Amino acid sequence: MAGGATTTAMVIAAARAGGLGFLAAGYKSAHTLETEITAVRQASIPFGVNVFVPNPVPITDDVYRRYAGALQAEADRFGLTLPAHPVDDDDAFDAKIDVLLANPVPVVSFTFGMPGHGVIRALQKAGTVVVQTVTTLPEAELAAAAGVDMLAVQASVAGGHSGTFSPEKMPAPVPIGDLIGQINAGVALPLIAAGGLATPDAVTGVLTAGASAAAVGTVLLRADESGASATHKAALVDPARTETTLTRAFTGRPARGLHNGFIDRFEAIAPLGYPAIHHLTGPLRKAAAAAGEADLVHLWAGTGYRHVRDAPTEEILRSLAG
């Protein structure tokens, strides 16, 4: 889970439970990623790294400035200066691939889009299993043709950003079991199911549907090893937070989180535009989280968020295994 929720301690704890934890490369420098890989490697455990593939959604200066203007009053409350022009970057993708090739890890997963064939082949040659996140059968077919080793199949109910290749047009929602069945029938690759899996029955269901493994995220946000902000953790158990919403208001790319005031006020006017909108709202979200103002924070969560609990990661994962 990018943004700090997944820590090295959580990855190590996942291995103790018999699982495979993934470090989040997103929004980190290549140096920070390398440092975290070194820390986890010292525990002598299998683990993976998840990488954002550059798949920018362009935005014009005029559209960007209009949205920035709408946010300015909230930024003023915290004494923030918002970026005057769209900030576009590739999240240091090439530098992170260099780290992963120089210091190979057991598994690398990709999301938001597919890396080039050369990247896939180079990682495999280095001994790394390559996993591609997909949200539809056509995406799965593209990934299989590119030669990846496994697929992470993400349902629309998953928390955080959708891994869709086409953020400007979200695929129709399909229950995770049905999606696993569709992709399993069309692609001969092992599947990891993800999205809304927060109970032993849900995990059993996707394994029965044909998945080789289940991936969880939201259910670990209040785990002892979680790096999620106190504001985020509190919102997950706030009885007033009664639903999750797919929104582009925070980052310019569809992502699911707890419905809050920011979404109420800005979703209708929020443009697509990633990573420009992510960089625009980032300082405001960080300041609001520090101030405990949950209505201005991206409270990423999947539909199983009511099952979060305060416990060690190892205990939560073992309970899901049944």
UniProtKB/TrEMBL annotation:
It comes from the Bacteria. One of its GO terms (molecular function) is nitronate monooxygenase activity. GO terms for biological process: response to toxic substance. Its cofactor is FMN. CDD domains: NPD_like (cd04730). It holds the Pfam family NMO. It catalyses: 3 propionate 3-nitronate + 3 O2 + H2O = 3 3-oxopropanoate + 2 nitrate + nitrite + H2O2 + 3 H(+). Signal peptide: none annotated. Keywords: Detoxification, Dioxygenase, Flavoprotein, FMN, Monooxygenase, Oxidoreductase. InterPro entries: Aldolase_TIM, NMO. Belongs to the nitronate monooxygenase family. NMO class I subfamily. This is Propionate 3-nitronate monooxygenase.
